[in-house]
Amino acid sequence: MLVVSLALVVLQGLAGTGAHSQPLPGSTSAVIAVIVPDAATSSMVDALNRLRGEATMVGFEIRLVEPLAGTTAQSRLERVARELSPAAVVALLADGRDSEGGQAIRAVDVWFLDRTSGRISVGHLPVEEGAGDRAEQALAVGVVDFIRARMFDSLVRASVESKAERPRSIPAIPLGRYQVFAGLGAMGSFSGFSSALLPFVEAGFALRPWLRLSLAGGGFGTRVDRRTSAGSVDIAQRLLKTGATFVAAPVGRRWYLQAETGLSLLFVATRGTGNSGFSGHAPAGSSPGLHCLGGVALALSSHLVLQSSVGALWLLREQQVYIADSQVARTGHPTWLGSAMLGVMF
Predict the structure, then answer these.
(1) Consecutive sets of 10 residues in the chain, 346 residues long: mean pLDDT of each?
(2) Which domain holds residue 91?
(3) Contact 331, 319 (CB under 8 A)
(4) What CATH number is attached to the domain comprising 297?
(5) Helix, strand or coil for residue 275?
């Protein structure tokens, strides 16, 4: 009886295939080392021919290895692995008698070693009862299928381990659901009305990660002065706005782009003093409007955010200021807005 050896595998050390072979997906052709028995009978030759044909069809190259007398199974495995770097080593197990009175093939042992993980897979493929003339073909197909399955297992395992070892991207700092901001706003007219700086506060609530409702107001800031020969006047502006802010996906870890639109209400209050006996008075006016702003938010930490925006306000009613019969200021319909605020989110 023939003492059976082993099989070894690796997805490295691959050799070329025949002209009509089809390579396995994800790899080039691989070598299968077959340890030849001392006395090859017709049954063994048929098995080798079948194995060569089946292996060549799927991209393997068969190389025959002479038996190594006086060596252990482990030493044969190490030597074949060192010299050929095969995908697998196949040993034919003779058990029984063929029609010529020689030993007949009754099983095939295959050893597969995945060098990337050091795992060894061993397969013992016996001849099915009643296989008859199909015994060699069945063994050949079984050997090739076993090797292909182990090779694909190795490829999948290597791919999974490679993905697991990749450094994970640092998640973005989330913006909290509730927000309170304080800062400085700026407002000016395209019609010559002097710009003003306004202390600004804003409170918001996030309905969704990408949608936030807010209410903001500003006033008691820079006052506009106008003087003529008929008298003088100072003008104060206050703004109240409410709107919906749309937040885009974060850029990197800390930056968020955002756009806001909503309704606004501008209040203008004047206080005048007349010259040459004219008495002063303090009329006030207001105008609703529609604003559109675009800006950016920087998450300094998980709770501290700096945001800045700029845009335009369209007033439905233009506010005009007169001293006597002379117009000294008017807001115009379009007005520009801007703000920079620091706040907390939680």
Answers:
(1) 31 30 42 70 71 77 74 68 75 56 65 67 74 68 76 71 66 89 90 83 94 93 80 87 94 92 92 71 86 95 94 91 80 90 94
(2) 30-165
(3) yes
(4) 2.40.160.20
(5) coil
Confidence (pTM): 0.51
Structurally, how many domains does the chain consist of? 2
- CA dihedral (166, 169, 170, 173) in degrees, to 10, reads -160
What is residue 7's predicted lDDT score, i.e. its pLDDT?
31
How many angstroms separate the CA atoms of 247 and 258, rounded? 4
> Which tokens hold the place of 275?
């010259």
Read off the tokens for 69: 């007398």
Residues 189 and 161 in one domain: no
| Rg of the chain (C-alpha set) | 43
- DSSP for 144-188, please give it: HHHHHHHHHHHHHHHHHHHHHHSPPPPPPPPPPSEEEEEEEEEEE
Q: Which residue, 165, 189, 219, sits at the end of a domain?
A: 165
